[in-house]
Amino acid sequence: MEKWLRILNELTSPRITxxxxxxxxxxxxxxxxxYTHEKADAYSTGIELMGKLIMAHHNYTEKHGAFGDMFGDxxxxxxxxxxxxxxxxxxxxxxxxxxxxxxxxxxxxxTQRILDPVSGTGRFMLMTxxxxxxxxxxxxxxxxxxxxxxxxYVYCTMNAILNGIPSVNVWGDSLKMEYxxxxxxxxxxxxxxxxxxxxxxxxxxxxxxxxxxxxxRDFT
Length: 220
Prior knowledge:
Elements: H1 3-11, H2 20-32, H3 44-64, H4 70-78, H5 92-103, E1 112-116, H6 123-135, E2 141-147, H7 150-163, E3 167-173, E4 178-188, E5 191-197, H8 199-205
Keywords: Methyltransferase, Transferase
Organism: viral metagenome
Domain DNA methylase adenine-specific: 83-181
């Protein structure tokens, strides 16, 4: 068994509660935003968890190359996805093909805003980053990911953090244009910062539903 898989198996053991995605959300995304060196002891749980995820990701990248979907591959192996309810991930080679065909070889100098309304664990984001890195050597885009599933929203956000991808990751319903929570990831050199966005912040940058047309009841 590869080391990255062994680490994730240990982190997702049924003996450990709450589930991994909830621990990542609370200990890393929520608490980690307020981290300071002076208060490091208060963040020891999140620091330990982040260290294990970085170790797993480093091993995964050594085995499978840059911008791979470690969390998506784990979910597929673990059987956590529910295809009967329509939950499945686009095969990574298909995501890579679509990214290349959509973006082309001549990428614009201007920073692009790219949206995936059903992002899953962020495979189109990862393949977009891979294409930009191999074509221009820089990630000159901001990728917007939306998914209604909490677990894949968390794993997509972690994929962005671990791979240093500029993104806004939204937990919400892209059809209803209703958003619960979002995390913006901001790479600064080799360090990735992140910022939790409240509903007001999300609504200021995300598409909004059109105003409802008046009905007869409005005039009576």
